[in-house]
Design the sequence.
């Protein structure tokens, strides 16, 4: 299984990515997690990414693409992977195609977890109280949703056009959503 996970911030991509990866026995690659780990570790990459993640805007493609290209070259992803948070705009999608072509593999699915913005704002504000993520403040959440709508949402049409899009409703219990996604992918 080689899949990308799409959906607005707060749709539950991170949670579902971990459960799906376990189910399918493949690693997850979360660009948001990689950025946060680098920011925490105060690496050069973290220093470059921080101003963007804090503002809720996309880290420049040249930084993100290079990071994903390195990650996809590692041994543990040869038999499959689940990308969470990448690609996030059409240029990244094209770049991903080139990375996979270089590796001689293809995507099997683009899984979109859907959720409306009122629900996701509520979830993210609740998460802010629990996890204290720097980008979970209301103005930054609104910015992230705006970036999603303009830059990332067009990817659903891009993957639908290639017959790769699988959609699942992200509202409901965590386990219920996981089963819904697995069912939709199997039906695909
Ligand atoms: P969420 O999906 O909840 O908005 P993520 O953890 O996926 O959060 O990402 C957090 C931040 O990391 C984004 O707002 C952005 O600044 C940066 N980021 C993550 N993935 C990418 C990407 N593919 N391209 C550019 N920036 C990214």
Sequence:
């Amino acid at each position: 299984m080689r899949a990308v996970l799409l959906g607005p911030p707060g749709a539950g991509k991170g949670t579902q990515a971990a459960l799906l990866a376990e189910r399918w026995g493949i690693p997850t690659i979360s660009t948001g997690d990689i950025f946060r780990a680098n920011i925490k570790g105060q690496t050069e990459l973290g220093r470059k990414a921080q101003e963007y993640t804090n503002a809720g805007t996309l880290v420049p493609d040249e930084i993100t693409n290079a990071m994903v290209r390195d990650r996809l070259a590692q041994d543990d992803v040869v038999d499959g992977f689940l990308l969470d948070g990448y690609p996030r705009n059409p240029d990244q999608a094209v770049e991903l195609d080139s990375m996979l072509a270089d590796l001689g593999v293809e995507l099997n699915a683009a899984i979109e977890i859907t959720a409306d913005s009122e629900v996701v704002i509520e979830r993210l504000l609740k998460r802010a109280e629990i996890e204290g993520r720097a980008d979970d403040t209301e103005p930054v959440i609104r910015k992230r949703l705006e970036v999603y709508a303009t830059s990332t949402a067009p990817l659903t049409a891009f993957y639908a056009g290639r017959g790769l899009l699988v959609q699942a409703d992200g509202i409901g219990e965590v386990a219920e959503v996981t089963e819904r996604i697995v069912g939709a992918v199997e039906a695909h």
